[in-house]
Specification:
single chain, mainly alpha, Peroxidase, domain 1, 7 helices, 78% helix
């Protein structure tokens, strides 16, 4: 643990992500691991706003749970994350996208370790 019991941003993200992925909400959803696995690459490829729109349009209840978890790991409300991804100027959008990729990567790691992916 760092000096003065101060956690780094990544430690805070990891702790929140672990608690969320361990929740019954995520464990009971057979599609959650698949979405958690593909979301960081989706943000990297398409951008945050488009990735959020895709998840909202295509993933149903799993997408809602996932976006709630992502915004919690990022320390935002889901509405704030969605609104900022659409209205932010370029420097803020880039920072927000990087933060989303880093947060989504923690969710992905724990989903791979703790949850079983559904068979195709």
């Amino acid at each position: 643990m760092p000096k003065n019991n101060v956690l780094t941003r990544n430690q805070v993200r990891a702790k929140i992500a672990y608690n969320l992925v361990s929740s019954p909400e995520a464990k009971g959803d057979k599609d959650y691991p698949k979405l958690a696995k593909k979301f960081p690459a989706l943000v990297h490829t398409c951008g945050l706003a488009q990735a959020i729109a895709f998840v909202r349009a295509k993933e149903g209840d799993t997408g809602t749970v996932y976006l709630n978890h992502l915004s919690s790991v990022m320390g935002r409300s889901r509405n704030d994350l969605e609104e900022r991804s659409h209205s932010a100027l370029l420097p803020e959008y880039q920072r927000l996208s990087l933060e989303a990729i880093e947060s989504a990567s923690w969710i992905k790691r724990y989903a791979e370790a703790l949850l079983k992916e559904s068979e195709p």
